[in-house]
Amino acid sequence: MLHQPVLSLTPVLTVAAGMVFLFEAGMLSGEFYLYAGFAFVMAVAMVGFGIGPPWSPLLLGVVSAVGFFVPGWRYYRLRRRHGLTP
């Protein structure tokens, strides 16, 4: 359709991931604004430095993994500390 290799559009997916974190920040916790900003910075870096298909999906995965794992781990520890985990 666009006559482009599929993985060359990874920065667009990174912007979409940043928007997901932005919406999560509005609904859940302001901590997600940090991860949204990190995703947007990575998208700009992918385009600005010409980081291509071998590395851009890996960077998208790292940004998403950190953005979901760190808050989840924090909330898990908080819940365990208060004795709410079975």
Mean pLDDT: 89
Number of domains as seen in the coordinates: 1
Roughly what percent helix?
A: over 70%
Cα radius of gyration in angstroms = 16 Å
Total beta strand runs = 0
* Unreliable stretches: none
Put simply, the count of helices is 3
- Identify the overall geometry: elongated
- What's the main sheet like? none
Cα distance spanning the termini: 51 Å
Tell me the β content: under 5%
Q: Encode the helix/strand succession as letters.
A: HHH
Structural class designation: mainly alpha
Structure explained in plain terms:
- The chain has one domain.
- 71% of the residues lie in helices and 0% in strands.
- The relative contact order is 0.15.
- It has helices spanning 10-27, 32-48, 56-81.
- The chain is mainly alpha-helical and 86 residues long.
- The protein is built from three helices and no strands.
- It starts with 9 loop residues before the first helix and ends in a 5-residue tail after the last helix.
- The mean pLDDT is 89.
Structure, briefly:
The protein has 86 residues and is mainly α. It has one domain (9-81). It has helices at residues 10-27, 32-48, 56-81.
Task: Give me some keywords for this one.
single chain; 71% helix; mainly alpha
Topology:
Layout: H1 10-27, H2 32-48, H3 56-81
